Amino acid sequence: MVKICCLGAGYVGGPTMAVIALKCPDIQVVVVDITKSRIDAWNSDTLPIYEPGLDEVVKQCRGKNLFFSNDIEKHVSEADIIFVSVNTPTKTRGLGAGKAADLTYWESAARMIADVAKSDKIVVEKSTVPVKTAEAIEKILTHNSNGINFQILSNPEFLAEGTAIQDLFNPDRVLIGGRETPEGQKAVQTLKAVYAHWVPEDQILTTNLWSAELSKLAANAFLAQRISSVNAMSALCEATGANVSEVSYAVGKDSRIGPKFLNASVGFGGSCFQKDILNLVYICECNGLPEVANYWKQVIKINDYQKSRFVNRVVSSMFNTVANKKIAVLGFAFKKDTGDTRETPAIDVCKGLLGDKAKISIYDPQVTEDQIQRDLAMNKFDWDHPVHLQPMSPTTTKQTLDYKKIYDSMQKPAFVFDGRNVVDSEKLREIGFIVYSIGKPLDGWLKDMPAVA
Ligand code: NAI
Fold first, then answer.
1. What is the pLDDT of residues 361-393, one digit of tens each?
2. pLDDT by residue (tens digit) across 57-92?
3. pLDDT of 291 over the 90 cut
4. Using a 6 Å cutoff on CB, does residue 124 contact ligand 1?
5. Is residue 312 part of a domain?
6. Domain match, 138 and 261 both
7. 38 marked as part of a ligand binding site
8. Considering 5, 6, 272, 350, which one is annotated as catalytic?
9. What are the DSSP calls for 400-433, one per residue?
10. CA distance 362 to 341
11. Whether residue 14 is found in the same domain as residue 103
């Protein structure tokens, strides 16, 4: 029986390994983590993360060929294939602070593998890492190898939170990069055989190591760039009376562009986009490519601009001050169907409103009050360094809001600011609300109260 061990029982390690176990009954999968509470949660009825469909997959395999354990060394030493899916946050201090990836967790994982391995291993980079990381990892492993052969593969993960299980069941592609040596290619084939249990062969792409590492950063940069592009357009729409939904629909109908990732919003969030683009920017700078670095940096700048534009719109609409005004914030995670609050635009929006002394009440069915308090107290980039405690036990009940009742209980004029363009603005206007929807023609009130950028 092939044995897989995965270091890191987080948003990627947990779901990915659960799906491999489900699809490959002939493989034993053990997920390990340095955080005991995380492993305990994976072994309980309340998993540490919320993903639609995840509970069912884990329940089907746990205790059969899927295990969660704190005994890292034992399982690493027994494994044939080791996935490393540890966090790779943005560095907060030292060289490259605020941009470069912090590879502390990765390096200590590699050193531990080198220390405890007694047989040949395939070590798979599952975490998103800077291009050329495999070279550094190879050095750490081979300098401490005691004659053991290590093959490093890059197998970046493309799942999206909120649809992780669906994405893992039907990936657009699986990417495996390896050394172009016979041993490297043999390792590529071994990993390919794992995915081939359920992914059609022509969707399993094999490349050299550097292409695989860079493709992940490039894919996230392209996705985030689309959001910043449409968000930049949303500001122009508001200034001109165009409607961003109509513009993005018309633009996306062009088959060369396509319709996905063209929704204007208060900005992208999540643990990956900003971190990976900053990392890309840093790599470009280190390679003497300042123009390329600046090009990608602009994607982040527009995202920050969109968040502050939203806050400014709220404040300016309410007579240039929200001091002591009560504001309800609906939704806090960075998108629906997840409890993950890392880099959620809600943090910047709430901090902006608090900065103007608003009284805010926040509700998200997937996020605990504790988590929200921690997020609002933290400095930028610190969120991924202390072990990030996950929101527990989500409620999945959908709630509908009685906007008429809400309106009746509010001070007038009553406002709704829609950072996702999800509410029925016409209906709310009929009730009496003043509604701001990103990139949509402005209500008369909002036109008279221009937001200062
Ligand atoms: P996470 O923070 O949820 O999980 C990482 C886990 O690794 C933590 O539980 C931590 O305790 C553990 N860990 C750290 N050092 C360890 C060690 N030496 N041995 C064992 N466990 C260790 O992070 P997440 O979101 O799962 O991301 C992991 C990697 O995957 C990152 O590089 C990220 O960029 C990448 N990625 C994340 C995606 C996402 O949607 N969250 C999607 C695709 C890639």
1. 999 999 999 999 999 998 776 655 444 444 444
2. 999 999 999 999 999 999 999 999 999 999 999 999
3. yes
4. no
5. yes
6. no
7. yes
8. 272
9. ---HHHHHHHS-SS-EEEESSS-S-HHHHHHHT-
10. 13
11. yes
